[in-house]
Design a protein that fits this description.
single chain; 388 residues; 10-stranded mixed beta sheet; elongated
Length: 388
């Protein structure tokens, strides 16, 4: 299919057909050729993008490129052949039904159209042959390399034109080579005839291929080789109505019933989708209303708190507990005991509600015995220091 292929497309195992369809537009892909292999057979699907149809074939026989090339004595394959699209040739696609006509149309649209009056023959390097057999309903796929050589000249002259000089040691004169082609093997004989000889409308690449001269067109198969049979045709990309099936034949009533069932499913799906959209819209409106009510409540609480604080400044703080004064007195007693026992002022974080005393005693002066721990036997610790 070169050169019109998506060579930059990288497909991974986790990618699905929907992912490939999504990137087909930006990459300019118009057809999908999908091969799948099971234990019983090989299936080939041809999908026309973006809206179908999908053609499913069962591959009965196939040969890879390496198999075809290895069976040939001389093969012709080079990169210049794939710089232009192949020439499509359809054979046997006559009035055998609408499914055959649709198959031929899908294959024709895979390749660019050719204007016979403006085509450049040097761009035609390959040929793709699709042959349909109405008896077996099989489709033959063949791929050939195309070569044009001049005719009407002796074999010796063709050798000279191709710059392949033969051994002339047994000849007395060069005229013997040009006249009879002596010294050439019989295996070099060319089976040209009326079936492949034509008059060139323009000059073709190769020595001796001149305009309005007789030349022979030769085909060399380069593969792959496929024999397949059409199974079914579907609308859409793989999941549409079955337009044709070679194994299942339904009457008109069955087709109408199938179409009615499918339409009913589509209607139910559209109804469920509409209901989901309404539910989403309703929940969104409820969240917005709840948010507005919450903001209004917060604003009302703030305004009432401001009004209450401005009204009575001499009122007692309702947040202060009743036993706050008792707790402060206990902390004063504990701080005083700490001063007597240790002889130093407690840290600020130990008794946060107790004010620190300013002592005029210079630093470094020894503590008196009355201020040392355990000196006052008659005094009992208060508060938290009793347990210690």
């Amino acid at each position: 299919m070169e050169p019109y292929t998506a060579t930059s497309l990288q497909v991974r195992r986790r990618n699905s057909l929907k992912d490939c369809v999504a990137v087909a537009g930006p990459l300019g892909v118009s057809h999908f050729l999908i091969f799948s292999k099971t234990e019983k057979n090989v299936t080939f699907r041809l999908i026309r993008l973006p809206g179908g149809p999908t053609l499913t074939f069962r591959v009965t026989k196939y040969s890879l490129v390496r198999d075809v090339v290895s069976s040939l004595r001389r093969h012709r394959m080079h990169e210049q052949q794939f710089s232009h699209p192949p020439l499509l040739v359809l054979n046997g696609f006559g009035p055998h039904g609408l499914h055959v006509k649709l198959t031929a149309s899908v294959f024709q649209n895979m390749f660019p159209s050719i204007n016979v009056h403006k085509v450049n023959l040097n761009c035609v390097k390959r040929c793709l042959l699709l042959s349909y057999d109405p008896n077996s309903q099989e489709l033959q796929f063949r791929h050939y390399s195309l070569k044009v050589v001049p005719v009407g000249a002796s074999r010796g002259m063709k050798k000279l034109l191709q710059e392949k000089f033969p051994n002339m040691s047994r000849l007395e004169d060069v005229s013997e080579l040009l006249a009879t082609g002596a010294g050439l093997s019989e295996s070099e004989a060319e089976p040209d005839g009326e079936h492949n000889v034509t008059e060139l409308p323009q000059a073709y690449a190769g020595r001796g291929n001149m305009k309005a001269e007789q030349s022979a067109v030769r085909l060399t198969e380069i593969g792959p080789r496929i024999t397949m049979q059409l199974i079914k045709i579907q609308e859409g990309v793989g999941d549409g109505n079955v337009l044709y099936h070679s194994l299942v034949h339904k009457s008109e009533e069955e087709l109408k019933a199938t179409l009615a069932t499918r339409e009913q499913k589509l209607l139910l799906k559209a109804e469920r989708r509409g209901k989901q959209e309404q539910d989403i819209k309703r929940k969104k409106e409820q969240r917005e209303a709840h948010r507005k009510r919450s903001l209004e409540g917060m604003q009302h609480v703030k305004s009432s708190a401001v009004d209450k604080g401005d009204g009575d400044s001499d009122a007692e703080d309702p947040g202060q507990p009743d036993g706050a004064a008792h707790v402060s007195e206990e902390e004063e007693d504990e701080a005083e005991y700490f001063r007597q026992a240790v002889g130093e002022e407690p840290d600020e974080d130990m008794f946060p509600k107790v004010k620190r005393r300013r002592t005029n005693k210079p630093p470094g002066q020894p503590v008196s015995s009355s201020q040392r721990p355990g000196s006052g036997r008659g005094q009992r610790p208060k508060g938290k220091f009793r347990a210690a």
